[in-house]
Amino acid sequence: MGFVPFMTGDLKTALAAALLLALTSCKTSLPDNVAAVVNGRTISYADLEKRYQAQFGSANAAERPSTDQVQTQRLEVLRTMIDNEILLQRAEKEGLMATDADVEARFAELKAPYTQEEFQKQLSLQHMTAEDWKAQLRRDLSIRKLLNKDIASRISITDQDVRNFYNENKKSFNVAEPQIHMAQILVTANPDPSVHNLKNDKAQNDDQARRKIEMLNSRIRQGEDFAMLAQNYSEDPNTAPNGGDLGFIPESALQKVSPELQKAIDGMTPGQVTPPLHMQEGYRILKLISREPAGQRELNDPQVQQTIRETLFNRRDNLLQAAYYEVARDEARVTNYLAMGIAAPKK
């Protein structure tokens, strides 16, 4: 056949499509050692595996999840790592990285309740070294500095805001009996389409629920913010948006729910968190926020004002943080190679 001086429109289109496909395939080839790239900075599979083991690696051999479940868990861990990397880069850009002194102080604070043997056991259970933990603390503290600067420092609760809240909720400050202010993280074994936490994360069975609550307990013990974990992962649609806040619960109601639970909480001080509790509704972790004696509380009561300010602040902070994360993701350049590899059709 001789030289063809021209091509038909259909042939040109086919060749162009083939060339585009070839170029696209080259650009999206999946590297072996990179799980994701965030604004040009890589997250390696080695780092992903280390973080995965810290959260899910304590399972017994007989209870290990299926391959699909493992991949789902890895995707969730990687999503958190990507979010943290986005915010960490923002913290670096704004000169808000935690100092060595910040890290050592927080490390000493978290280590203090344990003996050396107990501390090493905790590290072993989480598949971490002390240096791994310090590195995680540096990331968490830096991100906290960023959120404090860009969000918390800009929230203003006025005296009028406090008065309005009190007048609208005055009956709630008439305490008929001693009450306990608590927050919770709930994980259940029953799939529920109404669950909409920030991560859209829902356990599908009891094994997944138990693993998830253990992962969350581990992250709380590492110092992560209880309210943010509740927003991200709690499966109670009524309390998750408010950081797990259950409000004030009468002591008599707590006694009816579970005498053993009341006994455990009676021995706690504000700020303390329970270990995972297996209850009728599922697995719970509870945080004691405060205790309130009986009687009417007036607006001039400093504790009333503090409670109202904290409530209004937390509502605003939770809303702004959720929006901040979404904007940060939208502005970042992210390539998730793990997700691409899973989603690619098998040959």
Please tell me about this protein's structure.
The protein is α+β, with helices and mostly antiparallel strands. It folds into two domains: 32-174 and 296-347, Orthogonal Bundle (Triger factor/SurA peptide-binding fold); 177-293, Chitinase A, domain 3. Helices cover 54% and strands 13% of the residues. The protein has helices at residues 9-27, 45-56, 67-93, 100-111, 116-125, 130-150, 159-168, 206-221, 226-233, 251-257, 259-266, 302-331, 337-343, and strands at residues 34-38, 41-44, 174-175, 179-187, 245-250, 277-279, 282-292, 295-296, 334-336. A hairpin with a 2-residue loop joins β6 and β7. α3 (67-93) crosses α6 and α10 packs across α11. 24% of the residues are buried.
List the keywords.
disordered N terminus; 2 domains; 347 residues; Chitinase A, domain 3; 9 strands; 13 helices; Triger factor/SurA peptide-binding fold; alpha+beta
CATH superfamily of the largest domain: Porin chaperone SurA, peptide-binding domain
**Tally of individual domains:** 2
CATH architecture of the largest domain: Orthogonal Bundle
Distance between the termini: 36 Å
| Classification by helices and strands | alpha+beta
User: What's the total helix number?
Assistant: 13
Strand content: 5-15%
Total number of β-strand segments? 9
The CATH class of the largest domain turns out to be Mainly Alpha
Low-confidence runs of at least 5 consecutive residues: 1-9, 14-27
Estimated helix fraction: 40-55%
